[in-house]
Amino acid sequence: MLHKKLAKSICILCCICFLQTKISYAQDKNTVPASDTLRLDLKQAGKMFLDNNLQILAQKYSIDSAKATIITARLFDNPQFGLATGFYQPTASRFFDWSNDNREISMQLSQLIKTAGKRNKNIQLAKTGATLTEYQFSDLIRTLGFTLRNDFYNIYYLEQTQKVYDIEISALQKTSAAYAEQIKKGNVSEMDLLRIQSQLYTLQAELATLQNNIDDVQSEFKLLLRSKAAIYIVPLADMKEDRQSVLNIPYQALVDSAYQNRYDLKIARTNVTYNQQNLALQKSLAVPDMNINLGYDRLGSYVRDYNSIGIDFPLPFFNRNQGNIKQAKLGIKSSEVQLESLQDALESQVAKAYLEALRAEKLLNSFDPKFEENINHLIGEVTKNFQSHNITLLAFTDFYDSYKQNVVQLNNLRFNRISQLEQLNFTTGTRIFNK
Q1: Which residues of 181-207 are buried (b: 16+ CB within 10 A; e: fewer)?
Q2: Could you report the per-residue pLDDT of 254-308, keeping only the tens digit for each?
Q3: pLDDT in tens, 179-220
Q4: Three-state SS for 416?
Q5: What separation in angstroms does the CA of 403 have from each of 74, 365, 382, 400?
Q6: CATH superfamily placement of domain 2-77+118-286+336-428
Q7: How far apart are the C-alpha atoms of 326 and 161, rounded to whole Å?
Q8: How far apart are CA 178 and CA 11, in angstroms?
Q9: Rg (CA), the chain
Q10: Where are the domains of the chain?
């Protein structure tokens, strides 16, 4: 009888240690080793992302490069100047004979004059190209920014789930060690120890899988921030900041926002404009340009000190830029089809994201707001019943396993809601939620 009481006392002590561990986690929700750790809130992560991400930096250079083409398009063609003189004078048998009677020199000056508004068309095409590059930059930020924010919240909730596993594993390890000692003394059943160890090993395997998931998301997140691989990033998220309901935003307002703010849609529209401007340019290239020429020849013409002015241009009998004009027309049709396809997909994407966000919000709201508080309180009551010998250790561990599953599910639902709101922001091209 004394041995059984001792065994129960040890088990109760393990449970108390377990509760103390739980309280410790509640007091410091973000406790991780201080070394090689970077704590960031979402605004800090966003700034670090914009400053360091190599894809964004490369795209910035592309914008500057595209703007440089506008400068080139605005420039006029340089005039051409030619100078010639006599190399060998056969009568006098002299090279470079520059005597007063025999000095021959001729000069030509020509200027290309572009017709059919080619220069202005080139300028407009370059401006549209620069606008396209800026839209591509904004769409890159939209796409990578969605991944960044989603990873931020994903890591946060995965870490909350990890803490639940850490608490239960810590408690089971202590209980398993205590039972192992009592088995040596013959005070407890070996079957109970095997049940505890089986549950412990299952939890450790689940935790290893969870940690692998965290590592995967951490790797992607650190790549976006261009952070050192050895650093562990701890998201500092205040999940009480934004509880805006999806129902507060009319669906049509979301669709209108997508049509107005989606940069991939702006790119598609601008591509149509670019191809239309390119067609106008290609048609203008079929019109010949002119060269205006001025000439002077001292001795080489029919009169001394001959002066001339002239004009020359190609005759468009064969090459009228037919191939490039046809290609430009096909480019317009292709870009119009791509725009129409994106417009068809856009509303479908918004509708899907809206319904999924509503579903995630409804599912999360179906949980009693006091559920987490109540189940945490119930854990304490179960412990008291265990101490009073009203329930067995197996019943206690079963209850905590149920507690773990519910808390993990709740964390998944919370992340899913946040993720769906981010998806809705992404499809509308506007930061409506999770500001």
Answers
A1: ebeeeebbeeebbebbbebbeebeeeb
A2: 999 999 999 999 999 999 999 999 999 999 999 999 999 999 998 888 888 899 9
A3: 788 788 877 778 878 888 888 899 999 999 999 999 999 999
A4: helix
A5: 70, 19, 11, 5
A6: Outer membrane efflux proteins (OEP) (1.20.1600.10)
A7: 60
A8: 7
A9: 39
A10: 2-77+118-286+336-428, 78-113+288-320
